[in-house]
Amino acid sequence: MNDRGAFITIEGIEGAGKTTCMGVVAERIAAAGIGLLQTREPGGTPLGEDLRALLLGHRHEGVSSDTELLLMFAARAEHLAARIRPALDAGDWVLCDRFTDATYAYQGAGRGIPEARIAALEEWVQGDLRPDLTLLMDLPVTLGLERAGKRSAPDRFEREAQAFFERVREGYLRIAREQPQRVRVVDAARPLAEVSAEIARLVDDFIQARRHGTA
Ligand code: T5A
After folding, report:
1. 131 CB less than 6 Å from ligand 1?
2. Which of 38, 100, 120, 186 is the most buried (most CB within 10 A)?
3. What is the DSSP letter of 183?
């Protein structure tokens, strides 16, 4: 196995089932006897959680796209320094509910910020650190919003129009097409039992590949 822990992220539009499926991934990693840090973005640190409350709450509805982008990366810089890098360096694995693919999808494809601007911040804040495996939970926007709507009141992002989430979904799928080795697309429209079974298989395969030094 590699010395550095593996970095796994879960992505997808609202209501895709990311939070639900974090448990499946965590269970497979625990079953393999591997230490795990489970976390989320924006968030994961006291400062990051405060920034999350500002970003998702309704006090700053008119915030500019650039401000939103910079706050996402401010939270990420703190998250990497305080929690993600120390865990990976200690050999633990890290499972994160959303990461920089969300920035490309929401602030890039959704808000229209040029990709090169996001890439510059990514390089600055992350250096060469990228997720080793990303599970992209994909489903039609209407179904995702319907599921999310049943669960809780809409946050600042969930008040966006359907067209915004169509762009976000397409942004994610484009990343998956460009990086098929890292990003595995899971059809999240299926019943939870089927989705969970596929995720468990993908994670078990990844654990094996990591042990054999091929991932
Ligand atoms: N953001 C984040 C950015 O804009 N840029 C960034 O860089 C980052 C990091 C974060 C927001 O911040 C934005 C994106 C987001 O808008 P969030 O709370 O982390 O917000 O993300 P949400 O997508 O809003 O989280 P949700 O909880 O809405 O979605 P999940 O986690 O995908 O869905 P989950 O698991 O809570 O499931 C929703 C409901 O559906 C049911 C569940 O039981 C639950 O009730 N469900 C299913 N039902 C039937 N069949 C299935 N297969 C089901 N799977 C789940």
Report:
1. no
2. 100
3. E
Q: How far away, in angstroms, is 185 Cα from ligand 1 center?
A: 16
Instruction: Note the pLDDT tens digit of each residue in 35-53.
Output: 999 999 999 999 999 999 9
Omega of the bond leading into 191 within 30 degrees of 0 (cis): no
Look at the chain and count its residues.
215
Phi and psi torsions of 59, nearest 5°: -75, -25
Taking CA atoms only, the protein residue closest to ligand 1 atom 24 is: 14
- pLDDT value of residue 2: 60
Q: Please count the other Cβ atoms lying within 10 Å of the Cβ belonging to residue 23.
A: 12
pLDDT at 43: 98
Strand 36-40, strand 183-187: pairing? unpaired
pTM of the model: 0.97
CA–CA dist 62, 156 (Å, integer)? 10
